[in-house]
Design brief:
The chain is elongated, with a radius of gyration of 28 Å. The chain is about 5% helix and about 45% strand. It is mainly beta. It has a domain of about 100 residues. It is built from 1 helix and 12 strands, in the order αββββββββββββ. Strands 1, 2, 3, 4, 5, 6, 7, 8, 9, 10, 11 and 12 form a 12-stranded parallel beta sheet that branches.
Length: about 160
């Protein structure tokens, strides 16, 4: 009827001891060696760009100090004066873009101002005016607009 305290706490079937867990050694990445005076990606926002994937649609103004990869839809304006924006093959951008470098694999409708270069790849399309130090348009790319080639900031007059 009533069981003593010892009988209640004892399980009906004996519990088998579990196998010891394997030893886990933590994976710690080695510290990044940096030479004095060497430029690092950390100053520009890290090794990988910020990514807007295919299913993302964004409206507004984007500003920042990181590289940007757009594979979705973007409407508004983009200001990345010291960084690169890449418009992926699925990217559809309707914005005025200001960046150090602009690489277009998808579609961009808007004016582009680049401190360094603009590159329109074979499957890319740009409708708008370009102001940059260098421009590259591959065979098969679409471009409609004006081009203003400016001297690079470090170039001699």
């Amino acid at each position: 009827m009533w069981k003593s305290q010892n009988e209640r706490d004892t399980p009906a079937t004996p519990v088998k001891p579990s196998a010891p867990a394997p030893a886990v050694t933590p994976m710690v990445p080695p510290p990044a060696a940096s030479a004095p005076g060497a430029s690092s990606n950390a100053a520009r926002g890290g090794d990988r760009p910020t990514h807007l994937s295919k299913t993302v649609m964004l409206k507004g103004t984007i500003t920042g100090n990181e590289d940007l990869f757009v594979d979705g839809k973007l409407e508004g304006s983009v200001e990345l004066p010291n960084n690169t924006i890449t418009i992926g093959a699925n990217g559809q951008v309707q914005a005025n873009v200001t960046a150090r470098e602009v690489v277009i694999l998808g579609k961009l409708n808007g004016n582009v101002t680049a401190a360094d270069r603009v590159e329109i790849r074979a499957q890319g399309a740009l409708t708008g005016d370009v102001s940059a130090a260098r421009i590259s348009i591959e065979d098969g790319a679409f471009f409609k607009g004006g081009i203003d080639i400016r001297k690079a900031a470090g170039a001699k007059a």
